[in-house]
């Protein structure tokens, strides 16, 4: 049974006062954030800033899915983890850091890399799914799961000196899906472990993903639906590419 929305406490009104001062957010928007449920896929380079900012913003429940353990090579960019956590499960390490930041946030650890079937189960009842893994198979699975459930997917990627963000909002009939942008089978599977990545780049991209998530939760602004926002960190140039739902997309045809 769905729980009734909780009003903000006096402590929350103080903690989130800088959000509440924004006319785009106000008390109503912050209350929606506090009563929200978000599934974050990956607690690595992108997942770190996503999780930190969503927890700081007061998202009511964060579900963290990651089957890996903290490695010393992660610490150059995965800022939710600490040196003492090397060898620990990433979900447990992230939970410990987030609890220090904001103990009001409820955190569910999912110690596995989810496939499409398990994503459907965990994402059910969520308001947004945010993906921060470098696996295209996970992106395609999240795309299909979110489409089936009719919930928004916030996607980000970063490799080398390049990053990108887009939003797929399946509450909207005109929203493209991830496969409209990257048809299945045409992807080039690369990872930070093989290609390298600049540490602060994932911080920038993950922070943009957090902004897009909060916009969706609080209900303000225009999310990056049908827009690919791309960053080249070598000269800090941003580009916006528009794309539409493709009539021959095999995934969209299932809607």
Question: What keyword list fits this structure?
Answer:
single chain, 255 residues, alpha/beta, Rossmann fold, eight-stranded mixed sheet, 10 helices, 36% helix, 18% strand, globular
Number of helices: 10
The level 1 CATH classification is: Alpha Beta
Biggest beta sheet summary: 8 strands, mixed
Assign a percent range to the helix content: 25-40%
Helix/strand-derived category reads alpha/beta
CATH fold topology: Rossmann fold
State which percent range the strand residues make up: 15-25%
Task: Please outline the helices and strands.
Blueprint: H1 10-15, H2 17-20, H3 26-34, E1 37-41, H4 47-57, E2 61-65, H5 90-101, E3 106-110, H6 116-123, E4 128-131, H7 136-149, E5 153-159, E6 162-168, H8 178-181, H9 192-195, H10 199-218, E7 227-232, E8 237-242
Parallel strand pairs: 1-2, 1-4, 2-3, 4-5
Antiparallel strand pairs: 5-6, 6-7, 7-8
Helix pairs in contact: 4-5, 4-10, 6-7
Architecture overview:
The protein is an alpha/beta fold and 255 residues long. The protein has one domain: 3-Layer(aba) Sandwich (Rossmann fold), CATH 3.40.50. It has ten helices and eight strands. The two termini are 27 Å apart.
Structure described in brief:
This protein has helices at 10-15, 17-20, 26-34, 47-57, 90-101, 116-123, 136-149, 178-181, 192-195, 199-218, and strands at residues 37-41, 61-65, 106-110, 128-131, 153-159, 162-168, 227-232, 237-242. With 255 residues, it is of the alpha/beta class.
């Amino acid at each position: 049974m769905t729980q009734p929305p909780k009003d903000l406490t006096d402590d929350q009104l103080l903690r989130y006062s800088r959000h509440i001062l924004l006319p785009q957010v106000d008390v109503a928007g912050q209350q929606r954030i506090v009563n929200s449920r978000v599934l974050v896929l990956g607690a690595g380079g992108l997942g770190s800033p996503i999780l930190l900012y969503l927890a700081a913003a007061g998202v009511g429940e964060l579900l963290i899915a990651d089957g890996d353990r903290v490695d010393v090579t992660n610490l150059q960019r995965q800022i939710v983890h600490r040196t003492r956590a090397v060898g620990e499960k990433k979900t447990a390490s992230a939970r410990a850091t987030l609890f220090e930041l904001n103990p009001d946030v409820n955190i569910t650890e999912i110690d596995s890399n989810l496939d499409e079937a398990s994503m459907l189960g965990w994402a059910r009842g969520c308001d947004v799914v945010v993906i921060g893994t470098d696996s295209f198979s996970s992106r395609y699975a999240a795309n299909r799961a979110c489409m089936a459930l009719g919930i928004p997917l916030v996607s980000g990627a970063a490799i080398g000196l390049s990053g990108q963000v887009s939003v797929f909002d399946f509450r909207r009939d005109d929203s493209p899906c991830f496969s409209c942008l990257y048809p299945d089978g045409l992807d080039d599977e690369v990872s930070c472990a093989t290609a390298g990545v600049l540490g602060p780049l994932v911080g920038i991209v993950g922070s943009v993903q957090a902004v897009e998530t909060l916009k969706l939760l609080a209900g303000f602004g225009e999310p990056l639906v049908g827009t690919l926002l791309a960053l080249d960190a070598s000269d800090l140039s941003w580009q916006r590419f528009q794309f539409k739902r493709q009539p021959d997309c095999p995934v969209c045809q299932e809607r």
